[in-house]
Amino acid sequence: MSFKSIEKMMTISERDFRAVDLNLLVTFLVLMRERSVSRAAERLFIGQPAVSGALARLRSLFDDELLVRGAGGMEPTARALRLEAELLPALQDVQAALFQSERFDPAGAERAFTLAMPDWVEVWLMPRVFAELRRQAPRVRVAVKATDPFQGAAMLERHEMELGVATLPDKPAWLRSVPLARMGFSCVHHGKRLPLAGPLTLRDYVAHPHVLVTYRGAFRSGIDKLLEARGLQRQVQYTTQQFSTLPSLLREVAALSSVPAALADHWAYCQDLHAHPLPLPSPEIELSMFWHAAKDKDPALEWLRGVVAEAARTPLV
């Protein structure tokens, strides 16, 4: 808040406003426009006696007749004309503050946003988001923090970010979210280290070592339960919390890794990895965009959510 705004607030006397009803001032302005009690009553959707009573209260409040009968109808006094000139812009400002949504102009904005997401989501999604931000809002800055499905809501509650993108096992009542994408898993490997031709078979899948991304350090995931139901077991020999390490690992080791399908497609495009559908029914994940309910009507964040949602719908080139 600026010093001038504080200075204006300090000049406001609560006592002066006790006898003033905002609706009374609205009635005054309508009377000034219509120059008629009956027409003002029609505009305000109230009875003529109510408008007449309001005019009597206005005359008492301002100690002036305000509107007097003349040959052509009601004529304003000099005091009424001065009041109209001062009150009309003031009430227009009040109306705008109460009922008009704040606008966000991305082209001229200089705002910084803080987002949080797992590293694989950043790899898959943010290149398109950032490119669109550069196009629409060249002076907007973005900070991306790492999170996972178990930390996102807590980070949001601690105000460590404004917008998150992740899977959400828990949704507190204050959290708002919309689904961005639903996808299964694919299996990736490096063709030179592990030359597997044709569709990946279940036999191949369990015959080779696996690298697993797990946020809690486990050597098992939902895929292992699906394998066990078939009497099979895979060899998970390495776990990490970061998807971004996998391409380098797979260039050096003859191993497989099961990753979200969108990330597998991205790596097949730009990391020289081979991607295959899983040779068993794939578990699915739902990726959501989420934010605090207190930010529901933030126009800048609404705009950013639209950019992120559109990027998630845009296929990889």
Automatic annotation (TrEMBL):
Q: Which UniProt keywords apply?
A: DNA-binding, Transcription, Transcription regulation
Xref: Gene3D superfamilies: Periplasmic binding protein-like II, Winged helix-like DNA-binding domain superfamily/Winged helix DNA-binding domain
| Signal sequence, renumbered to the chain | none
Q: Which InterPro entries match?
A: LysR-type_TF, LysR_HTH_N, LysR_subst-bd, WH-like_DNA-bd_sf, WH_DNA-bd_sf
Family annotation (Pfam families): HTH_1 (PF00126), LysR_substrate (PF03466)
SUPFAM superfamilies membership: Periplasmic binding protein-like II, Winged helix' DNA-binding domain
Q: Which domain of life is it from?
A: Bacteria
HTH lysR-type domain location, by residue? 20-77
Is Transcription found in the keyword set? yes
Homology family? Belongs to the LysR transcriptional regulatory family.
- Its protein name is LysR family transcriptional regulator
